[in-house]
Amino acid sequence: MPEIRLRAHAKINYALDVLGLREDGYHQVRTVMQSISLADEVELRRAAGGFRLSFEPEEAELGPPEQNTVYLAWRLLQRLTGVELPVEVFLRKGIPAGAGLGGGSADAAAVLVGLNEIFGVGLRVDELREAGGAIGADVPFCISGGTALGEGIGEILTPLPAAPAHRLVVAKPLRSADTASIYRAYDRAETQSTRSVEPVVSALRSGNVKALASAVGNDLAPVTRDLVSEITTLEQALVTSGALAASMSGSGTAVYGIFDDEETARGAQDTVDVPFIGIYEPVPCGVRIV
Fold first, then answer.
1. I need a labelling partner for 78 at 20 to 30 A (CA). Which of 72, 158, 170, 173 fits?
2. What pTM value is reported for the model?
3. Is 210 known to be catalytic?
4. In the chain, at which residue ranges do the beta strands (DSSP E only) sit?
5. What is the architecture, at CATH level 2, of domain 167-280?
């Protein structure tokens, strides 16, 4: 297979409980994650040698060339296999950076899946997930996607029932958030977890979208709101526009509203004034070959 095209899906957190700081410096969490239809497009093509990345739009924030997750995924799989994997990667960004939507993790997941396919590496999904954990805590989930409970630092995954049908209006203010800085601020605040995971899991098992909406929560949201006040404004605007509930994803700064019908979601999209906004829905996978 000389080339492959993939969609790398964003994720939201229906629930995020922060349970404490581990000895290795990472935080112990429990979280319910959901893949959504917002996605980046990733194309991989066998090359004569080395690694080459091109992307659009030009202003997309990917970080330094040898630190972005696409390059890290390629380097990791080369080291694991011990063979050269010469490739050209084209990335079309749709997921905003610094949003808590897992864009970088999704891209790394797509590159791991794509390289595994075009070079016939032969790794199983569980092996790809284990490898991806060395790049970032969300990469294992982004490989398999769907609806899942994440434990540990988010890499220990248990599949959950698919979410009941609904629309998600995802909005992001201009300002972004740095995940490490948000967690440090959370530690300084010494707040207690709101423990929203179990109510969300129960709601998913019930298949009731209103129960799901009433259960969503995120322990990091109060901290990020203090630093980026627009988050509060966005949450309130989405609820005023008809959302059953609104919450922040990950460490922010993206906010999502849960809507039980398309028309109301479109009304919210048209009235909420923010640099990034769109209507999406839950999807059953993290990476899809197209």
1. 158
2. 0.96
3. no
4. 3-21, 27-46, 51-56, 87-92, 147-151, 156-159, 167-172, 217-218, 245-248, 255-259, 276-280, 287-289
5. 2-Layer Sandwich (3.30)
> Binding site for ATP: what residues are annotated?
96-106
Any alpha helices (H) in 145-196, and if so which ranges? 179-189
Antiparallel, parallel or unpaired: β 287-289 and 3-21: antiparallel
Per-residue pLDDT of 15-30, as tens digits, reads 999 999 898 888 999 9
Say yes or no to pLDDT of 64 above 80: no
As given in the structure block, the two tokens for residue 145 are 């996607």
Rounded to the nearest 5°, which phi and psi values hold at 252?
90, 175
Please name the residue that has the structure tokens 């201009």. Answer: 174
Query: Which amino acid is present at 87?
Result: V
**138 labelled catalytic:** yes
Binding-site residues sit at: 96-106
Q: What is the CATH number of domain 3-160?
A: 3.30.230.10
